[in-house]
Design goal:
By secondary structure, the chain is α+β, with helices and mostly antiparallel strands. It has a single domain, classed as Cytochrome p450, CATH 1.10.630. Helices cover about 50% and strands about 10% of the residues. The protein contains 20 helices and twelve strands. It has a five-stranded mixed sheet with strand order 1-2-8-5-3, with helices on one face. A hairpin with a 2-residue loop joins strand 6 and strand 7. Helix 11 packs across helix 12. The radius of gyration is 21 Å and the shape is globular. About 45% of the residues are buried. Pfam families: p450.
């Protein structure tokens, strides 16, 4: 949008974020929101927070000042919940639960989905990365353009999830084809056709995972699904099949398209800021800093899709959010807030060098994985895939360049791609 023409009374930020101008570059509008309407009430009645401090507080206060919708309230926040399998699956996910149910489910999944389990996947992830890069090398060396989004960024998380879940690769590719449709159908302004497409894809995913759980129960292997359905002698509590299906569905939705988008954004950063590639040529600490800055600069999820219901009247920035209001947070705006990150539109991995994951040298939290009780379970898995990919891309293809204009999906909710064409420069050019 032309920010100069923006009035002080933006009627609906969600609609503006879906405009072609914001699909191309949403950050000028986000800057305007932070400065002029940081606690925005959209035409639908949803509230949208855009300042880092407010977002951080709201995420941390989930379970206290905010809660998820109770089962009996779903129709209020999702008018089509009664007939939509996708919305019912969403309602059953961990992200929609409050303590004590959330505490129980998070404990059960965290029992097996551990940092150690993810680190054990590193050799497999490195092998998948090498194989995908081997696959695109001949075409690049012939001077042909390659769509890095389709051939690498999308393929890598699909194959990693197949490994994690103990699934045949072809099955994962088939399921993954519908994930984008599900995510679009779950957006706060999804149309009836979008939700219908999401329901078809969700039914397919649910049926497949139901069958997978039964196979793992009778023939367990060393994958995460086998562990989750297996017996734990020291723990009488287990996940029901419905809870496990919901968990797997949520993990796939939350970690596939978003990881692909982060890989795409990382490659864009490598090409746009060649002076910063040195971070990928040194130790793991430098690679980690580059990864964190990619995640900060371009959060793959623009705003939260999960309703957070105000438990009382809440005043932020002189605006009263009434009790029972639905509040969403504009994650991508918080990551570009100058009150949290100095010179926020500058790509600068140094701000994350030598720090804990997600924390800047100034002690500010990068918000792309959320915060508080609903912090993303798959954060480490995404970080490992980025850390294993980027140095290898840099080392294999030091002359990588754009072969055309990257094409983005026309989504207000997800900052994702349709194509990222690349080629190799001739040596010396």
């Amino acid at each position: 949008m032309d920010v100069q023409e923006t009035t002080a009374a933006c009627r609906d930020a969600f609609a503006e974020l879906a405009s072609p101008a914001c699909i191309h570059d949403p950050y000028p509008f986000m800057r305007w929101l932070r400065e002029h309407d940081p606690v925005h009430r959209a035409a639908s009645g949803l509230f949208l927070l855009s300042r880092h401090a407010d977002i951080y507080w709201a995420l941390k206060a989930t379970g206290d000042a905010f809660r998820g919708p109770a089962p009996g309230e779903l129709a209020r926040y999702f008018s089509r919940a009664a007939t939509s399998p996708s919305l019912n699956l969403l309602a059953s996910t961990l992200a929609m639960k409050d303590p004590p149910t959330h505490t129980r489910l998070r404990r059960l999944i965290s029992r097996d989905f551990t940092m150690g389990q993810i680190d054990n996947l590193r050799p497999s992830i490195a092998r998948i990365v090498a194989a995908r890069l081997d696959g695109i090398t001949p075409a690049l060396e012939r001077g042909e353009p390659v769509d890095l989004h389709r051939e690498f960024a999308l393929a890598l998380p699909m194959l990693v999830f197949a490994e994690l879940f103990g699934m045949p690769q072809d099955d994962m590719f088939e399921l993954a084809a519908g994930i984008g449709a599900i995510l679009e159908g779950l957006g706060p302004h999804a149309s009836d056709p979008q939700l219908a497409a999401a329901d078809v894809a969700s039914a397919r995913v649910r049926a497949y995972f139901g069958d997978l759980i039964q196979r793992k129960r009778t023939d367990p292997r060393r994958d995460i699904v086998s562990m989750l359905v297996g017996a734990h002698d020291d723990d009488a509590d287990t996940l029901s099949d419905a809870e496990l299906i919901s968990m797997l569905w949520g993990m796939l939705l939350g970690g596939f398209v978003t990881t692909a988008a982060s890989i795409d954004h990382a490659v864009l950063a490598m090409l746009a800021y060649p002076e910063q590639r040195h971070w990928l040529q040194g130790d793991a600490v430098g690679v980690k800093a580059f990864v964190e800055e990619v995640l900060r600069c371009d959060a793959p999820v623009m705003f939260s899709s999960i309703p957070r219901i105000a438990q009382r009247d809440i005043e932020l920035g002189g605006v009263v959010i009434p009790k029972n209001a639905d509040v969403r947070v504009l994650i991508a705006s918080g990551n570009r807030d100058p009150d949290a990150f100095a010179d926020p539109d500058r790509f600068d991995p140094a701000r994350f060098y030598g720090t804990s994951p997600g924390m800047s040298t100034d002690g500010k939290i990068m918000l792309s994985f959320g915060h508080g009780i609903h912090f993303c379970l798959g954060a480490q898995l995404a970080r490992v895939q980025l850390a294993e990919s980027l140095p290898r891309i840099q080392a294999r293809f030091p002359t990588l360049a754009f072969a055309g204009q990257p094409t983005r999906e026309p989504s207000a909710f997800l900052r994702t791609f349709r194509a990222l064409p690349v080629r190799l420069h001739a040596q010396g050019s």
